[in-house]
Design brief:
The protein folds into 3 domains: 65 residues, no CATH class; 82 residues, DNA polymerase, domain 1 (Orthogonal Bundle); 170 residues, Intergrase catalytic core (hpI Integrase, Chain A, Orthogonal Bundle). Helices cover 44% and strands 11% of the residues. The strands form 4 sheets. It has a 3-stranded antiparallel sheet with strand order 1-2-3, with helices on one face. A 3-stranded antiparallel sheet has the order 4-5-8. A two-stranded antiparallel ribbon has the order 6-7. The longest helix is centred in the middle third of the chain and has 20 residues. The radius of gyration is 30 Å and the shape is elongated. The N and C termini lie far apart (96 Å).
Length: 379
């Protein structure tokens, strides 16, 4: 590939140079890279042609910096560049495909493809700044999304930026806008309330609910529990069910809990069934079949209707255990280890209480006591 005579500007080909193409009536950057000559005709972020020499020279300076840093590649400066945000979204989703649950992947795909890619359609991920992120977050709120949904989209985007930083595609993660979250206090049941609602579940299906509540398992973890997970006096949480698929959890998410006497009693009362799964659905047409989320939620809806206790299943089992432990005075670190949380944020949420619960706590202080106020007194 040759260049027009008398059109060279700036440095030699090895360090890049700016040229004017008389036919196209615009400037371009010439760079000699890995044995080949490349032409760069457009701004990598805006996609605008180099109508002015000064604009091309400015981008050539950026290219030289990238060459010195060892981060330059011509494809990053051409149409369809892999570091344009829409292209990078697909790179990121492909990279995490085997390391996250199918349900998690589906959520990331929806959030990044539906919201992130269109908004940053022509922006290089290296050029995203705090102001752009703030504009994007305001755009989400103005599009009538719930605050919780907008927060989830921002979380997915932040995970993608963390991946880009670890992959050394960006030098640093830009400062992140403060994201408003709707985190109401967690509803939970006392042990007595749990006994009441679990008692409304048919006896044949009750064990999986009791075991889930005893160890604070996620519903998918209980369904996926297999016999090789119960050994050496421990319950090893290695698997989960996502999108009706049993899959191993990432090794970083493995956790093990000591098998309690109550947990052992639940297991000892299970009928012998030839199945790798600990809990099998006796109502299934095929013997030894595991439960599905749909089957468990069906039993749960009936139990709620029978008892009048309206609460989501995960709150009645997993979240209730965390709240009960904190009310007993168990320290945050023990609860964090038991649940496998990487931070204390979720554990702190277990400590929050609804206004109704706070009222009960305050009123219980004076239960049975008489307080006098002049002519009036009350219990």
């Amino acid at each position: 590939m040759g260049f027009p005579p008398n059109s060279r500007r700036g440095a030699d080909y090895m360090k890049g140079s700016v040229h004017y193409d008389k036919r196209a009536k615009r400037y371009f950057i010439a760079i000699y890279w890995e044995g080949r000559q490349h032409r760069i005709w457009r701004h990598p972020v805006s996609g605008e042609p180099f109508w002015a020499e000064k604009s091309a020279e400015k981008q050539l300076s950026r290219i030289r910096t990238e060459v010195d840093d060892g981060t330059f590649h011509p494809r990053h400066w051409k149409k369809g560049a892999p570091l344009l945000v829409p292209a990078y979204v697909e790179t990121y989703l492909s990279a995490i495909r085997q390391s996250v649950a199918p349900g998690t992947l589906a959520h990331y795909q929806s959030r990044l493809r539906r919201h992130v890619a269109p908004f940053f359609s022509r922006r290089d991920i290296r050029a995203v700044r705090y102001s752009h992120l703030l504009d994007f977050y305001n755009h989400l709120l103005e599009s009538d999304l719930k605050k919780s949904t907008a927060a989830c989209v921002m979380d997915a985007l932040r995970h993608m930026f963390s991946f880009a930083h670890r992959s050394e595609d960006i030098r640093s993660i830009p400062p992140w806008p403060k994201v408003a979250r709707e985190n109401p206090p967690i509803e939970f049941l006392t042990i007595e309330q749990q006994e009441l609602i679990f008692g409304a579940i048919p006896e044949a299906h009750r064990p999986i609910f009791l075991f889930t509540a005893e160890f604070g398992l996620r519903i998918g973890e209980s369904i996926a529990l297999q016999r090789d997970c119960i050994r050496d006096g421990m319950v090893h949480i290695w698997r989960t069910v996502s999108r009706d698929r049993v899959m191993d959890r990432p090794k970083a998410r493995f956790r093990s809990l000591p098998l309690t006497d109550f947990g052992r009693a639940i297991l000892d009362d299970l009928p012998p069934v030839a199945s790798p799964f600990v809990f099998t659905n006796c109502a299934s047409r095929s013997p030894g079949m595991r439960y599905s989320h749909k089957a468990l939620y069906r039993h749960w809806r009936r139990a709620k209707k029978a008892t009048g206790i309206e609460i989501p299943l995960k709150n009645a089992t997993r979240h209730s255990l965390g709240c009960q432990l904190l009310e007993m005075g168990v320290d945050f670190e023990a609860v964090r280890q038991m649940y496998g949380h990487t931070s204390y944020e979720m554990v702190r949420r277990y400590a929050e209480r609804t206004p109704a619960t706070l009222k009960t706590i305050l009123e219980s202080r004076r239960s049975g006591k008489i307080v006098s106020f002049g002519k009036h007194s009350g219990k």
